[in-house]
Write a structure and sequence with these properties.
It is a single chain. The longest helix is centred in the C-terminal third of the chain and has 47 residues, at 220-266. It is built from ten helices and ten strands. The mean pLDDT is 93. It is of the alpha+beta class and 341 residues long. The chain has an eight-stranded antiparallel beta sheet. A hairpin with a 3-residue loop joins strand 6 (144-145) and strand 7.
Amino acid sequence: MTEYVQAPEQDVVISSRVRLSRNYDDLPFSPKLTKEYADEVIERTSDAVFNGENGSAFSLFRMSEMEQDARTRLVEHHLISYDLLKFTSRSAAMVSSAGTITVMCNEEDHVRFQGMLPGLQLERSAEMALRLDEQVGDKYPFAFDSQLGFLTACPANTGTGMRCSVVLHLPALSTGGQMGAVMQVVAKLGLTIRGLYGEGSEARGHLYQLSNQATLGRSEEDVVRSLTAATEQIVGHERAMREAAEKKDMMQLQDTLLRSWGELMYARLMTSKEFMRRYSDIRYAASMGYLHAPLPGLDVLMMDVQPGSLGVRAGKLISERESEILRAKVLREELSRLVAE
């Protein structure tokens, strides 16, 4: 039996992530990065990581040596960025066994350190990324300017090079027509809200990614503190909207949300788009106590039935129809187990 531990504010905050952008001071930046230099980035980074604290916990994945589904699965589980796949011939990632720390090589910058934890845990996520950043930087110095801070390929990341983000589940604010107002408020705070996989992605399943925009002239502590405060405010608004919906007509709310449970438990075909709508409903139901299912288990399942992850599960390239059949089967089996637990 799997034991699930609910993280802080996990009824609304699915995960917290902190990424640090770094470049080695003696190598050309990405636009001029040859295959030889790219290999040097991977060699240096893996040397410092594998020979450092808890180095044995990491595995190295070269994108060029992986099947497409396996690469996509890493994106679906938020272990790497979509942008890393733009450079598959030269990019790589080191991922910890717990999936909480990732080091990406040769994306927009030479190295990106990522710390990720469930719920609202930005401070701890930042500590993990900064600890590894210091470990690698001590051995192989990064490009740094005393006035500007860390130098990056994109000027927007110069300074701390830190991007903090949280993935939020906001079904009540979304269906209540409040997301426009939320986006206006966070923009004034120097933050932005995007879809689940960042810039250009769709907010499927009422999932949104809230992140900072500015990194120059602000300390790491300030970036983490401001995003945490904004997140707590949004969490409060979402909870208030959920309570209001329940007070207005609890029977109607339960009926709407639990119908999705029935669909998922008995469907024989399930598209990715429909699943995300149903997932949002059952996660909402579980957070309200209408459905006895662990939120962490539902969130892992959501990632496990995305297209790339299903292809890895099948062990072969599968058609869209085969994907819909397998998704429905996995959902029936796993949801039955989750509720039983």
